[in-house]
Design goal:
Layout: E1 2-7, H1 10-14, H2 17-30, E2 37-42, E3 53-57, E4 60-64, H3 69-77
Length: 81
């Protein structure tokens, strides 16, 4: 099971964490990956200086802007399954 945590703290909220969550939920659903990807929210990851929303994938951290979610899904999530 791939564990994907999205920061929903105030700094990441302002950077678009809601859009990132919704897009990742959509991509997981449409690719039938609900049994392979566990998506959850997490309050501050203490990396607020990053430009995008902080996301951890099995404890590896990434910074993703809302317009980069589809590419992140393809390059990071799908390649780790």
């Amino acid at each position: 099971m791939l564990k994907v945590k999205i920061c929903i703290g105030s700094a990441c909220h302002l950077k678009g964490s809601r859009q990132v969550v919704e897009e990742l939920q959509y991509l997981i659903d449409t690719n039938n990956l609900k049994d392979k990807v566990e998506l959850s929210g997490e309050f501050c990851m203490n990396k607020c200086t990053n430009e995008g929303v902080n996301i951890s994938v099995n404890d590896e951290c990434f910074s993703v802007k809302p317009d980069q979610v589809k590419q992140f899904f393809t390059d990071v999530i799908q390649k780790r399954l």
